[in-house]
Task: inverse folding
């Protein structure tokens, strides 16, 4: 059975919040067993919990804010635009990314692909 | 060899313009031979030129305007948010959709998946 739209919406919101402000465990709790991560698209797919833990571990110590800007849901799939701001003292690093996810019956993330490149990152004076 | 970012950007802009204002032939000229279309995601994948021709033929006669709102490129892949407004006399039907595409070496579309559902469509008084 497909997860409800509200359940998918909640997972996406929790994901962006956890990536910005949570721990690696917070993020990994949103993933289904055996989930895959391709970020950015075109790089090798991460397939093990150890690889996911390493990937999200890099950003855990950063001071960030995150916001979902647009979310489109189709059956058990979602594509969403979000903004992640990393606060670096007098500068903010602003990234806007489109993530595409599939979800299992419990609205856990079974795959994630992130669409972005260098040109989607910019530094601005801290707000 | 991967297409350039500029070539991908041009194809995406041409695609949205052709869907809004062009003919079926204009749209199909942007697709690579053997391309697939899943719109919306979760529905059967269209795999033949006849199926693509039928799909885009439905919207050819409509009076529409289209606009790319956000475009993210990663290697030979793109995810973009666009708005398509169908003018229906005194009302406009406004759709916002995220499309994900892959491209061949000539920046022709080799696959398209569209993320949207009923809640991404709304009617407003004609502007």
Result:
């Amino acid at each position: 059975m497909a997860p409800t739209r509200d359940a998918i919406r909640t997972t996406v919101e929790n994901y962006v919040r956890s990536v910005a402000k949570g721990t690696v465990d917070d993020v990994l709790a949103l993933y289904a067993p055996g989930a895959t991560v391709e970020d950015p698209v075109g790089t090798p797919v991460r397939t093990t919990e150890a690889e996911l833990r390493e990937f999200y571990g890099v950003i855990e110590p950063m001071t960030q804010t995150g916001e979902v800007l647009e979310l489109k849901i189709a059956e058990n799939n979602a594509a969403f635009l979000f903004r992640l701001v990393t606060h670096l003292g007098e500068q903010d690093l602003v990234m806007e990314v489109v993530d595409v996810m599939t979800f299992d019956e419990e609205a856990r993330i079974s795959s994630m692909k992130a669409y972005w490149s260098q040109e989607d990152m910019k530094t601005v004076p801290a707000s």
